[in-house]
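Onboarding guide, step 5: your first structure request.
Type a short instruction followed by the sequence, for example:

Predict the 3D structure of this protein.
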Amino acid sequence: MSRSERAASAAGHGAHGATVEALAGRILKGTYGEGETLVMPELMAELDVSQTVLREAVKVLTTKGLLGTHQERGTFVRPREEWNLLDTDVLRWKLAAGVSSDFFADVLELRRSIEPAAAALAAERRTDDDLAALDAALSAMAATDDDPVLLVRADASFHTAMLIASNNRFYAQMHRVIVPVLVERDRAVLAADRAFEHPHAVHAAVVEAVRNRDVDGAYMAMLELLDKSAREHP
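The system replies with structure tokens like these:
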């Protein structure tokens, strides 16, 4: 491929990506309501993109559950319950558009069903490398001195490391869903300047149980961590 062809390809990819982001943002923010049909010629003019670029963007958003197509109806916004919130892009767009307290409550219910079980598995299956990752996250958390940016980063590292330490390939993948929401919630809490107890001790209790291969203790310690967080940051 020549340099000019590579440049054209890159430009097309850039236009395609920007179109996906623009449409997704409008859908998640409610600019286009559920069931609304998109007028493609108007969108092409408004976004200044070709029919090919717009068509490819629609394909991407269709696979993610945001859009649907019908021969007679055209391209339309699908109901919210059909949006694939487990898709990392959809989740990112959702968080960027703004979420309500009930969204965080739903994710907490998800976390309560996954993270204690993952911690129990970690206690049974953890490797030396897993413990090293958990200890590194704890050390980072202890050294934050209540710096909100460092604290959010350390908390994300801890929960990622714990899910991976389960050595269950599906639990390990759940950090892609849990951690972005956790980071968003932590940022909101810290930005509100609410009083809270430094989280190092409650996280360290989970790691200690995992280190001691205490399966039941790890499960309960993680459950207490989640419940304590919910009590402090409703």
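Each response can be followed by summary notes, for example: Residues 1-12 have pLDDT under 50 and may be disordered.
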